[in-house]
Design a protein that fits this description.
4-stranded mixed β-sheet, 5 helices
């Protein structure tokens, strides 16, 4: 009888996966210092969407919060830049550092879904984002932002930010405006759509959790 109870206990006991099957943390920390800026970016791809952003550019901080919240990425970006000149250097270098951190966190891209696609509405604005962790940097960008500035933020810098991310993450990124008339809505919808597409692309595909998602075997 005791032997039968012991057998039943063993059968009912939940199995613990071997240590080798536990997915390592997909996190990265990158610090980049130039004569113009000093930027530190840390992130965890498997986070819950927490964000600390202090770049000296309030609208950029707001957009980084969108990436974290809607991408479910824990993100901390701290930057000091030559804002007395303008926002360009800091905006671009934040994009560069974030791109490097993303590339470091996905590593050789083993197990990721690789592709992401999302269409985000924000009132009258509707923005489509498609991305591929292809290893080949390419940006197609067709936002038509009516105003030169959103608050104090120069809207030309939206493209510069995404170009920096693309080049240093080594991804293909398409951002397409389907509808929109309000500058703030257009840009915020673009960042939200990017965040959701990014989340889709970096999530682990359980059917090939340890393999690189390419017929070539490398990305």
């Amino acid at each position: 009888m005791n032997d039968q109870l012991r057998i039943m206990e063993i059968i009912d006991r939940p199995s613990v996966p071997p240590a080798s099957s536990v997915q390592p943390a997909r996190a990265a920390l990158v610090k980049r210092t130039t004569l113009e800026t000093d930027v530190t970016a840390s992130l965890n791809l498997d986070g819950v969407g927490t964000c600390k952003a202090s770049t000296g550019i309030p609208f950029l901080d707001h957009m980084l919060h969108q990436i974290a919240s809607h991408g479910l990425i824990d993100l901390d970006v701290q930057a000091i830049g030559d804002l007395e000149i303008d926002d360009h250097h800091t905006n671009e270098d934040v994009g560069i550092t974030l791109g490097q951190a993303l590339a470091k966190a996905v590593g050789d891209r083993s197990g990721i879904s690789r592709f992401g696609h999302f269409i985000a509405p924000l009132d009258e604005a509707l923005i489509e984002v498609v991305l591929d962790f292809s290893g080949r940097p390419h940006l197609s960008y067709s936002l038509e932002i009516p105003n030169q500035r959103i608050g104090t933020y120069d809207t030309e810098l939206v493209r510069e930010f995404f170009s920096a991310v693309v080049n240093h993450t080594q991804m293909t990124l398409h951002i397409r405006q389907l509808q929109g008339g309000n500058s703030h809505h257009i840009v915020e919808a673009a960042f939200k759509a990017f965040a959701r597409a990014l989340r889709m692309a970096v999530e682990i595909d359980p059917r090939r959790a340890s393999r690189i998602p390419s017929s070539k075997g490398v990305l």
